[in-house]
């Protein structure tokens, strides 16, 4: 079976590769809607270290995708069924190690071809039904699954006093996490700390909202999730260390390309638990879809989705990445090649 794969070969340069791919025992899916992630954008713009770019390219981008099943010889899925695609290649390890952290794990669109292909062939356990979710919203299932994974780890590690949970950041990840926590931790008050007035306004369902430069001195919370990343990581972590209650848990979710200083004296004095959290696995996708099937959550998630025009060729791919640079949250587009 010949497949067309749209590979990034150099910054902002995409070429089509034709490849004969295996179909036996695989679920064949035609991608329908995709979403652009910051990681995809960094590769496309060449904003990773040159050595990393040389190692990763060429590869097809995009790891957030939903599609329609064309054929499933295993009988797990029906033709035409809407499914979310899991980009994580599970590693091997003890049962207590999550699949996304296990030795030998991989990730599509990070050294392996992502979902910018004419069709995708995956093992059945890398596909999850998302029937009942609007296709444009289902495109960000992977993104939502990152937040369900973070909650799963938090739920296992943090102490039981969870009256007040803070989210540091006001971008797409912070907003999606807030939506997830509103379902999985409905009794907890959410405190959101961010920088942008327009973005903070979307967190209307949070109990409290603050600007990062005017956080009250007496503000306290039991635990926190850091969703700032980048240059904002240090400030976000400092904020949590200053305001979290003793033995609080800090979940690190924001990605930084550079070392971030941490005031360890106060971390030690408060007996804090600091947890790194990245990506997700099948169980997280299943939980994400369950959450996304509720009408309220779908409506909330639509608030951060900008639906761009359909992509039908390489020129359109370049347009989408250019559009995404001007979009405050998530860019979703129909894959029509």
Automatic annotation (TrEMBL):
Domain Alcohol dehydrogenase-like N-terminal: residue ranges: 24-129
A molecular-function term among this protein's GO annotations: metal ion binding
Keyword Transmembrane helix: no
SUPFAM superfamilies listed in its UniProt record: GroES-like, NAD(P)-binding Rossmann-fold domains
Cofactor(s) the protein needs: Zn(2+)
Keyword Metal-binding: yes
A Pfam family recorded for this sequence: ADH_zinc_N
Domain of life: Bacteria
Family label: Belongs to the zinc-containing alcohol dehydrogenase family.
Name recorded for this polypeptide: Ribitol-5-phosphate dehydrogenase
